[in-house]
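Minutes, project huddle
Topic: does the predicted pose make sense with iron/sulfur cluster bound?
PN asked that the exact inputs be recorded in the minutes so nobody has to dig through chat later. Recorded below.
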Amino acid sequence: MNYLAYQSSDLLNGNGLRSTLFVSGCSHGCVGCYNVDSWNPKEGQLFTEEHENNIIADLNDPKINRQGLSLSGGDPLYKRNRRQILQLVKRVKSECANKDIWLWTGFTKEECLADSLMSEIISYVDVLVDGKFEQDKYDPNLKWKGSSNQNVIFMSKI
Ligand code: SF4
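Predicted holo structure (tokens), as shared on screen:
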């Protein structure tokens, strides 16, 4: 998996102060996509175990109380990203006490649940923002999502 950017302290992508990873690769081809460069899975840099360790360390940093990890893109559930994203969300839940995970994907929740690997990934996710971006449903006043067809789904009681 490649990634485009990592922000260790971010206030824009989810509730509270967060660490946010933007991964490369997306197959949804939404008209009006805010970041067409992110579609190419070869964009950005290789995401290594060292990067993963750094994210875990940031979430466990006692000096900065981050609320959790946000995963965006591109699409974290792009087919080639799934194995590494599963490993990352598993580690966050086992090694970072009380940290939540938000994940943005162009797949709907129903599509995620129909696939064994995506379904396993979202079982570790606290907030899922699902669905493709639809330009005719764009509304700049929406919170955490770009178009009204998308859903902000609280999977757990965080
Ligand atoms: S799912 Fe997101 S990144 Fe992918 S094409 Fe749609 S808006 Fe762009």
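Observations noted during the meeting:
- The pocket of iron/sulfur cluster is lined by residues 26, 28-30, 33, 35, 38, 73-75, 106, 132-133 (CB under 6 Å).
- The CA atoms of residues 60 and 97 lie 8 Å apart.
No decisions taken; revisit at the next huddle.
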